[in-house]
Amino acid sequence: MSPIRDLSRAINRGILIMDYFYPKYYVVGIDSFENKPDLMARVKKIIEKCEAHGAIQKTTEEAKQELKGLSAKERYDLGKQTLQIEELKRSSVHFFNNPKGAVESPKIIINHGMICPHSCQYCYWQKDLFTRSRITIYANPKKRFEADLKVAMAIWRVFSAFLRIPSSKDRLGYGLFAKFDEGLKRNGKDFSEDELNKICSGLAEKALDEWKTPQADRKALMALIENPNHSPNAVFNSGEDNDSVALEHITDVQKDILIPTILSLDKAHIMLRTKSIHYDFLEQFKDHEKKDRIIISPSLMQQEFIEKYEPGNYSLKERLKALEKVAGWGFKIFPCFSPLIYERGYGEETVKQFVKTLKEYLPPERIVYYTLGSLRLGKMALRNIRMIRPDTALDSPYFVHPKHSSGDKFRYPKIIRTKMYASFIREMNANGYDKVARYVQTETVEGWKALTTDKYKDLGLDIDKCRSGELDLEALTQTETLVHTSRVLAA
Ligand code: SF4
User: Fold this and answer.
1) pTM, whole model, 2 decimals?
2) Where would you tag: which of 52, 58, 224, 391 has the fewest CB atoms within 10 A of its CB?
3) Cα 136 to averaged position of ligand 1 atoms, centre (Å)
4) pLDDT digits (tens, 9 = 90+) for 159-180
5) How many structural domains are present in the chain?
6) Which residues contact residue 413 at a Cβ distance below 8 angstroms, ignoring those fewer than 6 apart?
7) How far is the CA of 459 from the centre of ligand 1 (A)?
8) Residues 78 and 146 in one domain
């Protein structure tokens, strides 16, 4: 690593000890620990680790006052040096709402924090710069995460049935998940699997009544939900709201809480989405009989773009070397090539070079699935990015305003996006990744339509399998659970 990059990391990312991030400041945003000894114990442990590396405490009021008069850039930089420790009062699990006008596979997210120490210029969270800009972790104790995950498994069991029927599948979303979660927690006594499934079945019936679901669909759905053999796989993504691994050395949330809980639940899988390289905590699971339920999902892009748009982040080779090691331990690898960036001077040659480098470390047999997505930015995020870095080339002259598409984001024109996806997938295919399942993430309906015409047949993209979640489950859990479920429904 060059001394200049090293220095840039230090400036951008608080204090660095052996290349691990530690904050310069921390703020505890929890009003009371009364009757919450487990919460207090976790917070204490986190603080001890931060203070051992020089972090200084600020009160909530001090942290609020010092934001006054700061420029957007100063506010952003200070946020990346400050750790906010919170208790999440609602469930730590939620259902991902499909962005407007876009196609996405159904996702269940574990929320253990938001905003991370990396400095990706395209970060979605910059939309909230003027309301919250600090790296935030939720210090909820293990018991709370366990209860949330058990409840989420019962909800997913019903949701996966709803996904099979057109009249119910479009009803799924964040709000419905939260409603089920609330109903289960209010009525559950012992939180056993049987009890949760029974309550969930009642909630499902109620929902079907409200939606005036046609009798035939209703009958098929309830037969499936009440079938004790209906036990679908679930994949929990723990890196949608922040990086799954970047703060692990401070929180131990994956090692001590999420992974052990997931492995204790039948059919549950965990996805670690990350740009970090510190997978040492996974070594203890490398001989675990259920280790194939831990999926590493690294975000990767060309080195040229990492240098331009992820200042201070780990280089492509650093990430690939670390991944080569964990892949060797037998964990599944599911790379996320996103965002794809379009710029003059960075054409097909850079994609060729990128795939060549990828293959040196992660040959096709090491990868179970991959996804790619082109750069997309919401209005608020783009406004704030312009304020933080007025000269950034990320603010592309090619951007199309959201009003000209079915989505709600600024994107490159459809023709550019289609060409980017096609050249990337074709390069992957040419390098032997043709058998690896893939999808394009959060693409617009019209974008998917273009990609599934005869001209792009060779890309092997299947919108229905993606939208139903079947593709995710087949690729990541390597089972045919949903196909089986469809057969049960058809019977
Ligand atoms: S890793 Fe994700 S959450 Fe962290 S800065 Fe980058 S885009 Fe934002």
Assistant:
1) 0.93
2) 391
3) 12
4) 999 998 888 988 999 999 999 9
5) 2
6) 398, 400
7) 28
8) no
